[in-house]
Amino acid sequence: MAEILFELAGISKSYPGVMALDDVSLRVDRGEVVGLIGENGAGKSTLMRVLGGVIAPSEGVIRIGGNDHARMTVSEATKAGIAFVHQELNLFENLDVAANVFIGREKLLGGPLKLVDNAQMRARVTPLLERLGADFTPDTLVDNLSIAERQMVEIAKALSIDARVIIMDEPTSSLTISETERLLEVIADLKAHGISVIYISHRLGEIMTCADRVVVLRDGRTVGELARNQLSHAAMIRLMIGRDLKALHTPPKQAPQPGGCDIVGLVTSAFPDRQVDLSVRHGEILGLAGLVGAGRTSLARAAFGIDPLLGGEIRIDSAPVAVASPREAISQGIYLVPEDRKKSGLVLELPICENVTLASLLDHARMWLVGSEAERKIAKEQVRRLSIKAPSIDMEAVTLSGGNQQKVVLGKWLSMQPRVMFFDEPTRGIDVGAKGEIYALMRELADQGVAIVMISSDMEEVIGVSDRVAVMHEGSVSGVLEREQFSEYNVLRLAMGQALETVEAAAP
Amino acid sequence: MIRKELGLGLLLVVIAAITGAINPAFLSLVNLLNMANLIGLFGVFALGEGLVIITGGIDLSLGSMFALLGVVFVDLLTTYEVPWPLALLAVLLGGLVLGGIQGFLITRLKMQPFIVTLCGLLIYRGAARYYTSDSTRGFGYGDEAATLSSIASGNLAGIPNTFILLIVLALILGVLLHRSVYGRWLYAVGKNEEAARFSGINTNIVIATAYIISGGLAGVSTVLFVFYTNSVSPSSFGNFYELYAIAAAVLGGCSLRGGEGSILGIVLGTALLQVLQNLVNILGIPNSLNFAVMGTVILIGVLADQQLQARRRRKLALAGVARTAPKSTLVQGQQGASPRGADALPARTGDQA
């Protein structure tokens, strides 16, 4: 069984200022299931994109079938038998299963019209579906399939191109338990047929079940490899962490004041069967950690009135507040700095000035007419206070750098009276200097008595900036850490849905 | 922003000058006043269409709305002998209600504007024809609405009242669009509805209001057209007029993607369209080529505007890169430059198509 299928050797990928991959090596044997784990941003996706030919590595060698490649194209990767089952499934919902499997390489009838041979495609897909134990037919519309069934279509597609290795990126993140078991059975079956699988997941239990070998990435480097008999949750988590985190923390000027925002029994549409309870005090920065998709953004959206509350309530200083729409939330002093600033935070084509005052126009309007002078004064004030680098407040927001754009979003809220602020990934895609300024600003706001919830997937930021950290796992809060309990290990354990170890000192 | 209107105004003057040079009758007072009347007639509802287009939507139902409201209006005055102020009020309310229904379907029930207003176009026209059994309604020999008629088709010091009304409405809507909070919201919603919602703007109400205003202006236009033609034949009254409004708005700088356009631009766009029609007549170009001329001019106008904008963006992007690159770190440079260099440019092409 030790026939080497392919090997990545010394792969590096650098972007200006960032080393996404640094001398990573990965070998996959025939008929082997390799688990690939690491924190958000450890480089798993980048590595898989190198393998799939989507991006070219800066250095290193891809060795397939005895040939060395400095880089591969997508079609070379496909020809070499590398197939993906994506996290966001790439299927055409408006087409049927057979059409999806053969997309881009449709079987054609002869003749000048080159019509598509639906009958032949369906006939070829039927045995693949049977092999996967799927209970739908090739002429079913993908739109009518569940997520688990769509995954089967992706796998059938991989089989139809004679894939030799199938890369599955978080395949079970939206599956039920029985669907997950079904998938693990399919993986075992693939393995029995000599097809290898690279299984990327945060769910260590599944990794334990299916992987023959686990490769751990951290900060773009391979930090360890565990054989089947070495696998344990603790061993995997220990390898995933271990960076020395810089001391970013500025302590609050005063102890958190009494009162604040209580989220009680909140139910969001993303996790209709889970409840969230969370408290953040005035003057405190509460870090909200968790894996991508743990329900943190849904929580913030619900609290800000974007998505409906399916249950529970928000209280400020023990008084319930209505948040049926963003307008209501804003009138209560609850503000959200959204995750995607270009899509939700800014109107990119409007000038800085109009973006800053977009939420507060009515406050300084007279008889519904925009108070231009008041407006410009407010915008200038925010540009100065936040040191937004722009030649004038009439510049369109689209011309600014990421950090300055984020500051414009902040300026919009700071020109009003915040009581509770949600920051969703406030420093994503922002350079180091602007990051520091945003941290300082959050601290300043907290010291003024604002209750701050900072959603972040950046461990350094979570541990360095927060006064307390709440961790979410699959829709509910799995634990809250005080500063003396802060460690990457603890945050990760809670994020993976495991209880804290009773003797924390035992963690290295 | 204002640059576009300047260009359009200049184009208008150049075309007028050339046409006038070829045939001086074009610049005669009679012809100019006639054109002013037509500009007034077609400008009023183009303003409403413009607001709808700025939200990123479209209103295809205007022409049919004229027919339906028109037959009702004439019937109220002649058959039911309703006093004219009441009939006028009924037509205006009718327009507002129809606009309100369309706005409701589009915002609350999340239907596509094109479909909602296309169905409106079919339904209103059908209703008008059924209501009148497809017969033309007109005023008899009586003077059912002499007062209103003289207001709607009269003139003040020689200037057609329709044109004066257009200027007044344009001023009011100009303040609404360019100076009021609602106007700012309208642009924000048109450009990025999600960001507007995240800023606490009730985007549904903002959008629905645009359709309501458009419906109300359609009511006003109905009355003007009824007194212009003095009769309403339900199968042809107002046919294709919504397309004139869309053409005027697009020519005047509105983008069908929403978020762009100005009142001055829409008025100039309407004027340009009417001048083109008049020019076809006066230069002896076969009348059958009327639409072809109009289509060609719009096509060239929008294309030229797009090319100029793309060039301006490119220049801006280059200037922006040159400005930030030397003093920023590598990471910053990458982030700063890529949205401008890579995204901003292609995002513009295809605009206003």
Topology:
The complex is a heterodimer of chains A (508) and B (353).
Chain A: E1 4-15, E2 18-29, E3 33-37, H1 44-51, E4 59-64, E5 67-69, H2 74-79, E6 82-85, H3 97-101, H4 118-131, H5 147-160, E7 165-169, H6 177-192, E8 196-200, H7 204-210, E9 213-218, E10 221-227, H8 233-240, E11 260-267, E12 276-281, E13 285-290, H9 296-303, E14 311-316, E15 319-321, H10 326-331, E16 334-337, H11 341-345, H12 352-356, E17 365-366, E18 369-370, H13 372-385, H14 402-414, E19 420-424, H15 432-447, E20 451-455, H16 459-465, E21 468-473, E22 476-482, H17 488-495
Helix pairs in contact in A: 4-5
Chain B: H1 2-22, H2 29-54, H3 62-78, H4 84-107, H5 113-131, E1 137-138, H6 146-153, E2 155-156, E3 159-160, H7 161-179, H8 181-191, H9 193-198, H10 203-229, E4 231-232, H11 241-251, H12 263-282, H13 290-324, H14 330-348
Antiparallel strand pairs in B: 1-4, 2-3
Distance between the termini of chain A: 36 Å
**What's the end-to-end separation of chain B, in Å?**
18 Å
Strand order of the largest sheet of chain A: 6-7-8-3-9-10
Strand order of the largest sheet of chain B: 1-4
